[in-house]
Specification:
By secondary structure, the chain is of the alpha/beta class. The chain folds into 2 domains: 151 residues, Aspartate Aminotransferase, domain 1 (Alpha-Beta Complex), CATH 3.90.1150; 229 residues, Aspartate Aminotransferase, domain 2. It contains 15 helices and 17 strands. The strands form 4 sheets. It has a 7-stranded mixed sheet, with helices on both faces. Strand 16 and strand 17 form a beta hairpin. Helix 3 runs antiparallel to helix 12 and helix 4 runs parallel beside helix 12. Its main location: cytoplasm. Keywords: Amino-acid biosynthesis, Aminotransferase, Arginine biosynthesis, Cytoplasm, Pyridoxal phosphate, Transferase. Belongs to the class-III pyridoxal-phosphate-dependent aminotransferase family. ArgD subfamily.
Length: 406
């Protein structure tokens, strides 16, 4: 028996919600696989993936089953106790990565907050309070808390909220010499996204990440990889650091980790984890049974050769067609990214018009994203069917053609 709800429309948003978002004019109400339907029953293909969150699309049966079974068993017990789904998920993450210890929370910002606090605590305990500086990249994005937004190198997100957290500096991404000049014995951590997501789907050069690792080792600093957007199979490896062969000291994960259920994780080593003794950090909902049960189902599906190899193959299918569209219509100067995190960099004539293309795609029944005003971003389901890729990119081409010929 379905519950009757009071009718609501897009206009209600402007009456009852804080205006910090500007959502689309239509309201999605149902999803299945790589398709969603809005209130009018219109079907759209989803290549946005909830901003790289819906790793297995909408209503994947393994996730629905995990959530339903757990919902009938135990929802919340708090961290006064541990629980079985938390321990199973932690084991699977440890077994699959460099990590030996896991801290669970509810979002990417919280995972990064924990990572940054851990880095400062380790440096404080081992070297004293002077060793507290964090170096991050310009145009990075690490979350919206005051600490994480200060580490993120985009002043438009951090200005206007009072004094910023001190001891944070920013250097150009992929610039080894700038990084060398910045790192010192006062540095406690270097924080990098292996692929800058919000900054334009910009992959790191291998030499850059290798240099960061060497500099951190030389100066007793920790290397933190923010894999909130790149992790959980998005690049064709379980985590992007595996693609590069550069191992961090601390890694943050969220987004795809729960496949749409809010969960985040900070992964690290036993040696570093011991600095967060009981009472030093916490979260009410972190590691709750519902989130961990769903995330366990996600990793069981994603961390398989079939899915990870599929991501690499689908990536080539996307890139080849997007490059062809870019050449035919003159809209893209470059198609870049790894796996199913793809950025189409707009050509000079189209700079600043990513939102225009996004809106035109929605009219044709396709959901895509932007990553800065100059990059159209694709982050579809990792198991998107080949036929859906063809259909979605046909819709995308129609949208581009109408804009170019307008």
């Amino acid at each position: 028996m379905s519950v009757q709800h009071d009718p609501v429309q897009r206009a209600d948003f402007d009456q009852v919600m804080v205006p910090n978002y500007a959502p689309a004019g239509f309201v999605p109400v149902r999803g299945q696989g790589s398709r969603v339907w809005d209130q009018s029953g219109r079907e759209l293909l989803d290549f946005a993936g909830g901003i790289a969150v819906n790793a297995l699309g909408h209503c994947h049966p393994a996730l629905v089953k995990a959530l339903t079974e757990q919902a009938n068993t135990l929802w919340h017990i708090s961290n006064v106790f541990t629980n079985e789904p938390t321990l199973r998920l932690a084991h699977k993450l440890v077994d699959a990565t460099f990590a030996e210890r896991v801290f669970f929370c509810n979002s990417g910002a919280e995972a990064n907050e924990a990572a940054f606090k851990l880095a400062r605590r380790v440096a404080h305990d081992k070297f004293g309070p002077e060793k507290c500086e964090i170096i991050a990249a310009t145009n990075s994005f690490h979350g919206r808390t005051l600490f994480t937004v200060s580490v993120g190198g985009q002043p438009k997100y951090s200005d206007g909220f009072g004094p910023k957290i001190q001891g944070i500096s920013h250097v150009p991404y992929n610039d080894i010499e700038a990084l060398k000049a910045a790192v010192s014995d006062k540095t406690c951590a270097v924080v990098l996204e292996p692929i800058q997501g919000e900054g334009g789907v910009l992959p790191a050069d291998l030499a850059y990440l290798q240099a960061a690792r060497e500099l951190c080792d030389k100066h007793n600093a920790l290397l933190i990889f923010d894999e909130v957007q790149t992790g959980m199979g998005r690049t064709g490896e379980l985590f992007a650091y595996m693609h590069y062969g550069v191992t961090p000291d601390i890694l943050s994960s969220a987004k795809s980790l729960g496949g749409g259920f809010p969960i985040g994780a900070m992964l690290t080593t036993t040696e570093l984890a011991k600095h967060l003794v009981a009472g030093t950090h916490g979260t009410t909902y972190g590691g709750n049974p519902l989130g961990c049960a769903v995330a366990e189902a996600v990793i069981d599906v994603v961390n398989t050769p079939a899915v990870l190899d599929g991501v690499k193959a689908k990536s080539e299918q996307f890139k080849a067609r997007l490059r062809a569209i870019g050449e035919q219509y003159g809209v893209f100067s470059e198609v870049r990214g790894l796996g199913l995190l793809i950025g189409c960099v707009l050509s000079d004539a189209w700079l600043g018009k990513a939102k225009t293309i996004l809106d035109a795609a929605a009219v044709e029944g396709l959901l895509v994203l932007q990553a800065s005003p100059d990059v159209v971003r694709f982050a579809p389901s990792l198991v998107v069917e080949d036929a859906d890729i063809e259909e979605g990119l046909a819709r995308f081409e129609r949208a581009v053609a109408k804009l170019v010929n307008a």
